[in-house]
Amino acid sequence: xxxxxxxxxDLVIVLAAAxxxxxxxxxLGQPPVIGEIVAGILLGPTLLGPxxxxxxxxxxxxxxxxxxxNVGLVLFMFxxxxxxxxxxxxxxxxxxVTVALGxxxxxxxxxxxxxxxxxxxxxGGDKTLPFVLFMGAAMSATAFPVLARIxxxxxxxxITLGGLSLAAAAVIDVLAWTVxxxxxxxxxxxxxxxQWKVLLALPYALVxxxxxxxxxxxxxxxxxxxxxxxPGLLSLVLIxxxxxxxxxxxxHVHYIFGAFVFGAVMPREGAERLNHEILERLxxxxxxxxxxxxxxxxxxxxxxxxxxxxxxxxxxxxxxxAIGGKMLGSYAAARTQRLPNRQSWAMAALLNxxxxxxxxxxxVGLQKGVLDNELYxxxxxxxxxxxxxxxxxxxxxYPDRRVARDIxxxxxxxxxxxxxxxxxxxxxDPPAAQAPLVGLxxxxxxxxxPSEVVLGHLRPYPKGRLEVGSGLSSELAELAExxxxxxxxxxxxxxxxxxxxxxxxxxxxxxxxxxxLASGAQPxxxxxxAGLPGHATVRDGVTCRxxxxxxxxxxxxxxxxxxxxxxxxxxxxxxxxxALILAxxxxxxxxxTGGSRASALAQRLAKLGVAATAGAVPEGALVVAADTxxxxxxxxxxxxxxxxxxxxxxxxxxxxxxxxVSRP
Length: 664
Prior knowledge:
Blueprint: H1 4-27, H2 32-43, H3 49-56, H4 62-83, H5 93-122, H6 128-140, H7 144-154, H8 160-187, H9 192-197, H10 201-216, H11 219-226, H12 231-250, H13 255-264, H14 272-300, H15 309-336, H16 341-351, H17 355-367, H18 373-388, H19 390-397, H20 400-414, E1 421-426, H21 435-445, E2 451-460, H22 470-495, E3 499-507, H23 510-520, E4 525-529, H24 535-540, E5 545-549, E6 564-567, H25 573-585, E7 590-593, H26 596-607, E8 612-614, E9 622-626, E10 637-640, H27 650-661
Parallel strand pairs: 1-2, 1-4, 2-3, 4-5, 6-7, 6-9, 7-8, 9-10
Antiparallel strand pairs: 5-10
Helix pairs in contact: 1-2, 1-14, 2-14, 4-13, 4-14, 5-6, 5-8, 5-15, 6-8, 7-8, 8-16, 12-13, 15-16, 15-18, 16-19, 17-18, 21-22, 25-27
C-alpha cells in the first residue's frame, strides 16, 4: 500500500539533497549531476543502511519515485534531441567522424573483452551476448549534455577545439544509442511477442523522419500566428513526445529513444523562438524537479557496502578500460588527422566525460536485467570518476590562458582579420649598429606568414633643460637620425618578406617603460639584447617566446654560413625550434648536442631532409640554448619558451619551412 505522507516526505528529502549536493558539486567546479548522484548514493543503503534506508526508501516507495524519475528522463531526452545541433558535423566531418570512431571503437572492443572475462560472474545463458555488447556501449559513451556544459562554462564552445569536441560527441552519441538499441532489442526479445516488435524500429524511424517531421513543421506558422506558445501547441508537442516514447517502449527499444528521436525531428528552420519557449517551459520542470529525481533514484540503487576485494579488482579493470580506451582511442584518432598534440589530449579528456549519458545507459541495463546490482554500482562509480576528472584534467591540459588566446583568434577570424605573426625586437642605442639583431628577428619572423617585425626603441629625454635655439635643433637632429637608422633597419626586415614598422619615442626612464612597451605590443616572439636595461623585467613581463641575444651572432669566415649548434636538454624544444629555423632559412648545418635526446632529434630531423647531426659544438658555431638556470656558457641565443607551450611537431615544422627556402 502506498503511503502518501511517506512519498511526499521522500520527495522533500530527495529534492533538498539534490539541490544541496548539486550546489556543492558546482562550487567544487564539477557538474551538478555528480552531486545529485552522490546524494542518491548517500540516501541509499550505502550510508543509511537497511534500517533507515528501507524505512524512507523501501521497496514500496521505489516504484512511484522511479515513475517520476522516468517522466523526467523522457522530458530530458526530448530536450537533448531538440538541442542537438545538427550543423556541428558540417565542415568538420572528416576529423569529427574519425575522432568519434576512435573514441568509440577502442573502448567498445576493450569493454567487450572485459565483459567476456567477467560474464561468468554476473550473467549467464542467453544474457551473455546482450551483456557483452552492453558493456562495450557503456564504455564508449560520452555525455554530450555534460560536455556541452563544461565547454560553455569555460567559453570553449567558441573555439575550434570546442566545436570539434561537440561534433565528435554528437557522432559518438548516435553510435552509442544505436548499439544500445540493439542491446535492448536482444535483451527484450526473449518473449515471443518481442521478437517481431523489435523489427518495427526501422519503419518507426522512417515514419518519424519522413511523416512526423513535416507535420511538426506546421507548428511554426501556427506559433507565429498566435504570437506565443499556447497551451494547445504545447499539448500537441507533449502528446507527440509521450506517444513516441510509448511506441519505442512497446517495441522493446526503450522509451528514451522515442523521446530523443521526437526531439530530433522537431522543426529547426525558422523555429528558433518556438523551440526556445518550449525549452523554457520544460527545462524548469525537468531540470529542477524530475531529472534530479532520476539521478537520486539511480544513486539509491547503488550499494557500496556489498562490494568486497574482488569487486575492487573489477572496478580497477573497469576504470582502466574506460579511461585508457577512451583517452588513447580519441588521442590516436585526433593525431591521425594532424591535430596538435595538446589539442588532441584535451579533446581526449573531454570525450572521456560520461556523467549523465552513462547513468541513463546503466539504468537501462539494470531495468532490462543486463546488469546486476554489483556491476551497476561499479559502473556508476566509473561514471562519477570519469566525469569528475574531466574538469581538473582539462585545466591542466588546456589552461585558461590558452582558451583566452584561442577565443581572441576566433573573434579576429569572425571579423575577417588575419593576425600576423608579430616579432618585437627591442633596439638599443645606437640603432645603426643593430643590423645583426634586426636581421635575426626578421629571419625568425619569416618562418610564419603573414609576419610583422616591430622595432621598439625608447630614447631617454635629454639631460638638462631644452632651450629654443641650437640645443633644441641638436636634439631634433639626433632624433631624426635615430628614426632614419630605425627605418633603414625596418627596410632590411621588409627585404626578407616581413612587414615592418617602427615604434620609437622619448622616455623618462627606459628601464621602467620597456616592460610596458613589450607587453603592450602583444608579440608572438620577443627578441632583445642581454645588456638591455631591466632585461629580466622585460623578459618576465610577456607570455610569448623570448630570444635573448647574449653575444655577437657569428656569420662564418669567408661568407660561409657558420653552423648552428643547439643544446637540446630538458625543456629545450623551443631552443631547438629556433635553431632549426635559422639553419633551414639561412642554409646552415645544424648540430644538436645534449646526449641521447639530442641524438634522437638529430636523426629525426635528418630523416626529414635537414642537414642535422649530433655531436660537439663546432668552432665558430652559432650556439642556441634554452634560457634556464643551467644554460651553457658561451651561448649566443638563449630561448625561453612561451607559457603553456606545445611540444614541437618536427615534421610539421620542417614542412612549413621548406617553401620559404625557395622563395625569392
